[in-house]
Design a protein that fits this description.
HIT family, subunit A, single chain, three-stranded antiparallel beta sheet, about 35% helix, alpha+beta, 9 helices
Length: about 300
């Protein structure tokens, strides 16, 4: 009998555990005590893998595999919540915003519940740097390349493909597929997210939504990628533009060349999760007192 995988994005668990904390924000970060705010149909948590403070996720209270499947009349509520959070994060950290969703993620551990990531990025970044970071990430993943033939053998594993392409002379191997770049994956209109992808989702398809301050560095694609593409892109951006991340990256890779700092499974950054809660709860509490829209609640127990 297979072991049941718990829903690690359960609204009920976050609501229960957060309100049972003796002190709020908590002194120690646990799996379900990271709730920051909620509306009628969505809730907000400080996200695991926060290589920068200010990283949050908007999650559907109802178990859905994609934001494309929310009710039509919930879009106004979602847009309002995104704006409230984005404005608050920008003001607190003096940074720009990147947001992303991997629709129909089907991730292990219940992460197939629809969720939108919102992360701060350095104020100094421009479209060119972001697009360059997207392209670097796509190349590192060998996105679009299905296999490589070398020395009479066919290799489909990403590590084998990378090793062969990096370590062999051009012409000694044959590539199946085409290396994708930013222009290749801009095949859906960002402004139509999430409903433009509904037919794709209902057929069992995936999509990736990535939006910044500018349409020239954003994309919505029905290309199928492995998970955490958005997080890897943001880390690539911060690695170049944020001196703290630049130094962190250097120190970690000196100890472990194979470390993937952007993967939440490898680095949770609990100190930044806690910092996010301390930084954002008070500004959001002020908004909740002024705004009665969508029954906006902030979890505040001091």
């Amino acid at each position: 009998m297979s072991k049941k995988i718990n829903d690690v994005l359960s609204w009920e668990k976050f609501n229960e555990d957060t309100y049972n904390e003796k002190k709020y924000p908590p002194e120690k970060i646990e799996l379900f005590n990271r709730l920051i705010a909620s509306t009628e149909n969505f809730f907000v948590i400080a996200a695991i893998g926060a290589f920068v403070p200010g990283y949050v996720m908007i999650i559907t209270k109802k178990l859905l595999p994609s934001l494309a499947l929310i009710e039509d009349d919930q879009k106004v509520e979602l847009d309002w919540l995104i704006k409230v959070l984005s404005d608050s994060i920008s003001e607190v950290y003096q940074k720009k915003i990147a947001m992303f969703e991997h629709g129909m993620c089907a991730c292990i551990g219940g992460l197939d519940r629809a969720h939108l990531h919102i992360m701060p990025i350095s104020e100094s970044v421009d479209d060119s740097l972001i697009v360059n970071s997207i392209n670097k990430t796509l190349i590192r993943r060998r996105s679009g390349i299905s296999s490589v033939e070398f020395d009479g053998h066919k290799f489909e594993n990403i590590h084998d493909i990378t090793e062969i392409m990096n370590g062999s002379e051009e012409g000694t191997f044959k590539i199946h597929g085409k290396q994708l770049n930013y222009n290749d994956i801009k095949n859906l209109e960002v402004t139509d997210w999430p409903f433009s992808t509904r037919k794709q989702v209902l057929k069992g398809g995936h999509y990736v939504f990535f939006k910044t301050h500018s349409p020239s560095s954003s994309f919505l694609t029905d290309k199928n990628f492995q998970t955490q593409l958005g997080r890897e892109i943001v880390f690539e951006i911060e690695k170049v533009s944020n001196p703290i991340i630049t130094e962190l990256n250097k120190k970690i890779l000196e100890k472990n060349t194979y470390a993937n700092i952007w993967k939440w499974q490898e680095f949770s950054f609990k100190e930044n999760i806690l910092q996010t809660m301390h930084d954002l709860i008070l500004p959001l509490e002020k908004i909740s007192k002024k705004e009665k829209k969508f029954s906006f609640n902030v979890s505040l127990r001091r």
